[in-house]
Amino acid sequence: MQLKAKIVLLAVLPLLLSLLAIGVSVLDQQRTLARQTQTLVREAYMKSRRIELRNYVDLAVGNLQPLATSLPPAQRTPEAEAELKRRALHLLETLNYGHDGYFFVYDQQGTVLMHSRQPELIGRNLWNLTDTQGRYTIRLLLAEARAGGGYVDYLWRKPSSGQMAPKLGYVELLPPWGWMVGTGLYLDDIQATLTELDTEMNNSIRTTLGWLMALAAGGTVGISIIGLMLNLREHRQADAKLRLMARQVVRSQEEERAHLARELHDGTSQTLVAGKLLIESAVVELESRGQTPPGTLAQALKRLNDALHEVRHLSHSLRPTLLDTLGLPAALAHLASEFGQHAKLRIDAHTEGAEIELPDEVKTVLFRVAQEALTNVAKHAQATEVDLSLAFEPGHIELRINDNGRGFNVDAVSAHPTAGIGLRNMRERLAAIGGRLEVHADQRVGPMQPGFEDAVHGTLVMATVPRKALRSIPSPPSGHLT
Fold first, then answer.
1. Rounded distance between C-alpha atoms, residue 19 and residue 16, angstroms
2. pLDDT tens digit string along 161-188?
3. Phi, psi of 336, rounded to the nearest 5 degrees
4. Are 143 and 127 within 8 A, CB to CB?
5. pLDDT tens column, 437-466
6. What does pTM read for this prediction?
7. 23, 211 contact by CB (below 8 A)
8. Measured in Å, how far apart are the chain's first and last C-alpha atoms?
9. What angle do CA 204, 210, 214 make, to 5 degrees?
10. How many CB atoms lie within 10 A of CB 100?
11. Helix, strand, or coil (residue 104)
């Protein structure tokens, strides 16, 4: 694993583990809090509903008490008493709250005197009524009422559903008449309210966990993006340093080439010229004396001329003076002329677009690419015609070398450890100045110049340098490579 990946992993893993621990802790606390909260809410809710039931019954009894004591003893007749009771029961019958909130009235013998939701029970004696557990419901209610009032849990039919449901009732006695007045709340309604509260609490906790997960994902993505940005920045810096080093290497090579070219031109070449002049002087002196010069002098003179020609050719190959004096187009034209004569090729060198002054490194790289490409044509292509063009396009500088040779398998040669050295060198030279190399073989790519229409097979080498890359290449001082 790479160091950068380890660093990112060491940064992300603790974050994920800590968030996982927080999530597990929150889930555990959620369950504990849910249980505690449910217990507290149930107790508080039940307490409030118990108080509410008692207040309802106290209110009802408080309204009935004045009626029960409104007749003076002298006016208490059975008819008057019955009328007061009828009015009292009618008043209670109209007091309802909620869907299933109502009052009921029983006498001391368990007879139903009033039941607003189940009028069919009025007049029936329910003293012996039992629930599913065998408990006497009305007897329990009457016992609590006689004890001064109290709460009773029992089962009763719910008016809104018609089903038996657990109910919490509160009852009191109305002393003057001995009635048991009560009301109650169905516990399934309370449970529904508690369930709704639990749902809201769980939703809130899930939302909190969702935010934690979002923060975890955001933190992971943020760290990944920062790591990627740092990685890209380091790559860009490394690429810039590599390009700078490559340019420095190329510049050093060119400086060494220029130095050798000068040494050959100023040293070796001059020595050979001096030797040639001495031999020619010897020949002239012998002839002036009427003597025939030996044949070895003529052979030596011929060998000196050949050596002088080779030294000059080598000097120009190492660093053509035209590249520094007249520029890249002239140097390419001279290169094409020399290669055409040497390799028996028809080479058409031309320039397109408005010529601009190029940095020395760019001129050198493009010249070396052309030199390498023409060398490959002469060695391998078996071509007869070559089109060499230098185009000054609006957005880039493009060098094209197109031949009509036999072509080759570009992918295979590029992947070969030794066969593609020339192509790799050209690519590396261009990459060092921000350019790129494209090679297309086995078929002609793009139009040929007039006179090359029959070149339907061959190789096209394109070297492209963007104009924006030219601005990032500093030009060395004048005469740096001369």
1. 5
2. 888 889 999 999 998 899 999 999 888 8
3. -60, -40
4. no
5. 999 886 444 444 444 444 446 899 999 999
6. 0.45
7. no
8. 49
9. 145
10. 19
11. strand
